[in-house]
Protein: Translin associated factor X
Amino acid sequence: MDITQFFTECRDTLDKHYDKRERIIKLSRDITAQSKKYVFALHRATKQRKPNYGEALDKQKEIIQLFKNLAPDVQGVNYYRYSRSFSGGFEEFIEAVAFYHYLTTGTLIKKQEIDALFQDEQGNQWIHVQDSDYILGLGDFTGELMRYAIQIVTSGEYDEALKICRFLREMKADFELLAGQLLPAVRKKLGALNGSLNKVEKACYTFQIRGSEYPKHMYEAIIRDHQARYDAERDVEADD
Structure:
């Protein structure tokens, strides 16, 4: 093989690598964008008298199809070679699915239930889900749970908000163990989880303690102020 042919083959190999990487990154961005829309659809549904999650489930189907488009490029060693290019999409999707699961069951989604979304009719896994993506996705899910808790406190559903508060405390305890032993990246999520828990606790405090100090219309104004500030934060995150 002469030197020209050698460098030509190297160029072709690199071109294929960069083309595949760009394709994976684009699909991951699409998955991330659709997952955010999935979450927003869930929040809209919770404001209905009888929540209808049809729009959200349609988004889930669209996202699963995007993952199917991604799967051929990340088989075998390519999964780990390109994992940093698409793990963010997995985290966003798991965040959305975990939120839907909580709204419909009141429980935390299990890793096996996430895996089942990526299996064919014969039970074969057509794309792998890393444990780290599952855990980090749950960390993001706590932020959506906080926003939901603030929303229902606004409508006077204090008992349900208190249930979410206890749920977040349990998750915090589990994340503290993981942050110190297994996943350093969990420490960043733990900070956000602490912030979410603090906001829910303050909202419950406002309802339980300060609510009795004000006329009903003034109390509702206080809670609406909480809601407006948290909605503003969500809009900023969506723009990012």
In short: The domain at 130-229 is CATH 1.20.58.200 (Methane Monooxygenase Hydroxylase; Chain G, domain 1).
